[in-house]
Amino acid sequence: MTTSPKTAIILGTGLGQLASEVTDSYEFSYKEIPNFPVSTVEGHAGKLIFGKLGDKDIMAMEGRFHFYEGYDMKQVTFPIRVMHELGIERLFVSNASGGMNPEFKIGDLMIITDHINFFPEHPLRGKNFPTGPRFPDMHEAYDHKLIQMADEIAKEKNIRIVHGVYMGVQGPTFETPAEYRMYHKMGADAVGMSTVPEVIVARHSGIKVFGISVITDLGGFDVPVEVSHEEVQEAANMAQPHMTEIMREMIKRS
Fold this sequence. Notes:
Elements: E1 7-10, E2 23-29, E3 47-53, E4 56-62, H1 73-76, H2 78-85, E5 90-99, E6 109-117, H3 144-156, E7 161-168, H4 177-185, E8 190-192, H5 196-204, E9 208-218, H6 229-253
Parallel strand pairs: 1-4, 1-5, 5-9, 6-7, 7-8
Antiparallel strand pairs: 2-3, 3-4, 5-8, 6-9
């Protein structure tokens, strides 16, 4: 069986449920794919899924790679290069992030309107791939029309969403209260350890991007809050139905 997907999904935190909704699917373990790294993080599977979501052909990446795992940026973003070669035109990404905006609540869904790249290595460093220019424009890293579509869907379905800027950092430690405050003063509303490298390479490859964060913890306020990986996963699981509903409807309409 073959499919010709134009849409890819990175099933990050909060979107795992979507994998079970893919029909007519066939999958490949990352271990079977030449040059693919293998995720080492609890809660992240490791396979490429091809199939249908509703009546749309899709490609889904269940499990992503992180800079903090020890991979370089070429390895972290290698799957995006594969997507480009397969003809992907739209990429949907999700993540868990710590919120620094005082108006946010744990469990909120934040549509990413822009990002700040705070990683110590740039994914486009080195020889330029011919998928895009040496100095790619990033004024619209996250597609405005896809953001507008998500806003309309959330309003129709009475789902609370917020908008904000995502700060991508190295990790793997969660942020100190001082770091949360600094990132917020720099213009970020949420912070996490993924997404930004993948988005940069997607845009360099001409792929349009929609990103959404689930706010799994809050930091930088007067009372310091301790956070664990288990609490992050629990908050993401609570938000998962609404995130899945928005993404499912967006893919249906796109």
